[in-house]
Amino acid sequence: MNNDEAYAQGLLNKALDPATQPQAIRSFLRAESALLRELIPRGSRVVDFGCGMGRHLITLDDHVGLGVGFDYEATYIAEAVKLAADAPHLHFFVGDATAVPLTTVFDMAVCLSNTWGTMSDKSVVFQEMKRLSPQRGSRLITVYAPSSVPARSEWYANMGHDVLDATDQRIVASGGFTSEHFTSEHFTEDRLRGLLGPCELHTIGDIAYVAQC
User: Fold this and answer.
1) How far apart are CA 36 and CA 122, in angstroms?
2) Which CATH code, of 3.90.1150.10, 3.50.50.60, 3.40.50.720, 3.40.50.150, is assigned to 3-146+187-212?
3) Where are the alpha helices (DSSP H) in 74-169?
């Protein structure tokens, strides 16, 4: 089970179920949403890479002027479209983060809740974010910090994915009912800046960074 297969089998649904979340993870998710309101100017045009079921744009419904989100998983996009039915300025589609079929320039491009940390082509995705939102400081990427490993290990176990190994860059967890596994990366400040270049890092407790690039 690779990461794509794990998410296709509903990993996101399990992750967003409060019953699976340790307190540190619940606090991180709330703090991330609050920080977005501080970092995204009101009325901005925002594109969300790997939007899942659209929760970030939907939470920012009253804050953004236009929100466009996409994800490779069609079932998540179908749910996002349903949840945003009363928000005509929010739009969702199935798409590939390495080749986004958009030419519109946005005020902000975001990739949140460690979505970027699960992607295999991180540098290509970042280039796409820069293409769609070229202004420096207009890209927001949330990634896990190494100190998040204990909370994430508990979280994954609560979802039925026991941790098999934890290195200085990633957690490897079981696939649940199979012998396969999925991975979840974490980043030191030096590694993150090495991948993204100059950026401002906003810490969220000991769980994550939001890199503003």
Assistant:
1) 21
2) 3.40.50.150
3) 74-83, 122-132, 149-158
Please write the tens of the pLDDT for every residue from 12-33: 777 888 899 999 999 999 999 9
What lies within 8 Å, CB to CB, of 8 at 6+ separation is 73, 75
Our measurement of the distance from residue 152's CA atom to the centroid of its chain's CA atoms, rounded to an integer in Å, reads 15
Distance of CA 206 to the CA centre of its chain: 17
Q: What count of Cα atoms within 13 Å lies in the side-chain half-sphere of residue 31?
A: 16
Angle at 127 between CA 125 and CA 132, to 5 degrees: 95
Q: Which two tokens stand for residue 171?
A: 């957690």
pTM: 0.91
Q: How far is CA 81 from CA 7, 66, 75, 90, 143, in A?
A: 18, 15, 10, 9, 26
Which two tokens mark 143? 């990634």
Is residue 54 within 8 A of residue 92, CB to CB? The reply is yes
pLDDT at position 180:
66
Query: Percentage of the chain surpassing pLDDT 90?
Result: 83
